[in-house]
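B., you asked whether I could sanity-check this one before it goes into the benchmark set. Here's the sequence:
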Amino acid sequence: MSAQIIDGKGTAAEIRRELAEQVAELTAQGKTPGLDVILVGEDPASKVYVRNKERTSKEIGINSTVHRLPEETTREELLGLIEKLNNDPAVHGILVQLPLPDHLDEEEVINTISPNKDVDGFHPINAGKLLIGDEDAFVACTPAGVLELVKRTGVPIQGKNVVVVGRSNIVGKPAAVLFLREHATVTVCHSRTQDLPAECRRADILIAAVGRPEMIKKDWVKPGAIVIDVGINRVDGKLVGDVDFENVKEVAGYITPVPGGVGPMTIAMLLKATVQAAARA
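And here's what the prediction gave me:
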């Protein structure tokens, strides 16, 4: 029996509808959520992401401003803009689109964003709050979207074996902590994990976030498992995930497609964080 496809696009649309109602309520109170995005340079993928963020923000009533800066923008100019936005009460969320040009220090830039406006969840204070279980932490948007997709399957998470393949600060590590908070037993795998297929076969919930096209094979997956594919890889002009989708869907219970799975959820969770930031302001 083929897996049930998890419709990230449809779920993201549901979340946006829910958020539009909250935005309308906040606006009626004189507090319209504001999201400012900073794009430095001409990276083609970044330009597409930022355009999508701008469009979806405006669709639900968020004031969205994009600061498009040239490739040669200096450190002082970028940090000065961030400080200006930190002090602007009309701005509730600040996002600096990564990657940045080589002459700019991503860590320094992220650390300059106010933790109260860090809707991307990358600031060390928010990462630390997540680790200690502080519910006020802003959480990296992609793992937050992963958790939301799993929750909306209706399958209980408590007590399940969750295997995360990938240990990045953006996806793997925060995803592991989020599922620990849901009382799952979590294993984090990476390039030096011994017998990776065996570890994956233990998973009731398998999260692939390693950036290698179609690495997760059918015989790596426990029958009936929930498989969440975070990977976005371009192969021969086509987008594919980290999971061999066509074959794995024959054994999984639930599976996300690429595209149309986790991707749309990332922007939806960014908008959700912006609305939360406005509500707290």
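One thing to flag: The mean pLDDT is 96. Otherwise nothing jumped out at me.
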